[in-house]
Amino acid sequence: MQINFEKYNDSELCAFLCKGNADAERAFAELYRRHSPRIYAYCRRFLGNPQEAKDVFQEAFVRFYQSTKQENRDFTNVPGFLLTITRNLCFNSKRKERDEICFEDYMYYESDDRNEKEELLNLIKMALEVIPDEYRDIFILREYNELSYLEIAELTKTSISNVKVKIHRAKQKIREILQPYLKEKLFDDSKNYYEKPL
Amino acid sequence: MTASELITQFVDGELSTSHESELFSALMVNEDLRKELHEQMAIHDSVRIDTEAFNPPQQATRDLFAELGFTAPNPSFLKKGAMAAASAVGRFSIMKKISIPALAVLVSTLLTFWASSEYYTNKYENMAQNNFQNTNQKDLTTTVSKAAPIPVVSTSVVEKSNNLNNNLKRIPKAVNKIFAAISENDANDNNSISPVEASIANDELVTNTTVITENQNNSSITLINSSKEFASNIPTELKQTNIAPEHQFAPMILAFNKSKSWFVEINRINPVYSSTAISTPYANSSIENISLAIFYKVKNNLLVGIMGGYEAFGQNIPVTRPNQPVSHNPLLAWGGIAARYMIDDFKFYGFKPFAQATIGVTGGPFGKISGGLEYNLFNFVDVIGSAEGAVLLYRPSDKYLTSNKIAFNLGLNFHL
Known about the structure:
The complex is a heterodimer.
Chain A: H1 10-19, H2 22-47, H3 50-68, H4 78-96, H5 103-109, H6 116-130, H7 133-143, H8 149-156, H9 160-187
Helix pairs in contact in A: 1-2, 2-3, 2-4, 2-7, 3-4, 6-9, 7-9, 8-9
Chain B: H1 3-11, H2 17-29, H3 31-48, H4 58-67, H5 75-136, H6 140-147, H7 157-170, H8 174-188, H9 196-201, E1 211-214, E2 221-224, H10 228-233, H11 236-241, H12 250-258, E3 262-274, E4 290-297, E5 302-311, E6 332-342, E7 351-361, E8 365-376, E9 381-394, E10 401-415
Antiparallel strand pairs in B: 1-2, 3-4, 3-10, 4-5, 5-6, 6-7, 7-8, 8-9, 9-10
């Protein structure tokens, strides 16, 4: 009889992985289904380069799988553990290829925009390429992975007040980069939502 | 902490309530801060549509599973996760915000209707029990019939007994004298009992009290009124239906016929408490905080209708720059449906209580629960006073915010 793995939590699925049988494969697939989108989002937006992101993304899951084979490891926070591996890999990758700019990505960013939000999103992606790693890291953790300040503090092993400051600075830097666009699009068109009731 | 930092935390949903007030005060007076808030929200919202980032390439999945010696799962199996993650970024926090107020509205509505249902169930059970006891008591009809063999209050056999017992309790001793007088009159004039309209029109015929009786030649119930004052107080609707005010169904019939089934209502909303939210000084104070409704009476006690309003949600921040023109308007227009349950036969000095549930939308869903009193001022106008609690989700620039509010309303209800 097939087991429905959707009903198990992450820790229980990790226990299946340790067994290394057919259930392990299905348990891994379930964990991958749950967490791969956010892990990939982190890689994709942190590294910018799709190929590099793909490599790091794969490597992160391989390391995670290998970790589950280790005895006495606590898997109470699988997404946090996966993000820790991913962040380390991303930072290492960035160190190796610092200052390289992927032409392909810029071509992608300049694709046809369907609306202003997409246009702004493409600019945000570009801005993420430019800002320092520590700010990009914290911005992605907040905006893409939707971690709270407390969770980010635990993951990055810093204080909440430090997280607050870093997030604010990261957003200010992105705002500064996008300023010409924001000024033109958001305010010249008189789109201030305060001025009209919903 | 700078105002700019407060904005960042506000957009991230990490700002404490105490700091929110500080932020709103700053927003009210600083145009640049409002621009910054708008920019940060625009950035925040744009990230929400970045679905491409949440879809790992299929090749990456295949390579990874191959590397681990596994068979790659079906893409449709993985798609569920990708879609959930992508949408969760944009919607999970929204769902969290929606679910609690929505649940509160649902529970409150159910409680309101449950309480009403309990009230009526108990009421009718007691009524049935009383009637049962009355029918087992000594038959008063016999006793009274000796003095006045005429009185019968209903064409229905069952009702005769019950209603007679109930109604006879109300009849003063003087009635017997009237019965006697009527009997004498009967003997002299065969046209013994006048139909209700005739007797009301001809008040001179009767003297001091009210008698319920039955026209022997006519199965309809008739009324003889002894007082001009009483006659003038008989509702028009009852006069038209020939039903005595003491009749057990009179209140219901009166309620049914009191007006047509449509009502228009206008309410002035007076907020007394509001949770904090983005708010700036009002622009159109003359038309703020009103609601308009059209109700239809679907049952005797139940009105349903559509409502719309234009009111301030969120914290009311006083205008601190009276000499400067105020260009921003925080008022929200909303529309929705409402159900009002009138407790029709429970009156307190003429005030009828009611409970109402309203659900609707602005930029997001909102719900209101209110309870109040209705007073019939004229034949076609009721005065409405109520207290309401409202939970609202609204969405300025795609950002969902919640607001709770308590208000007292005063309004007029016109019967069409």
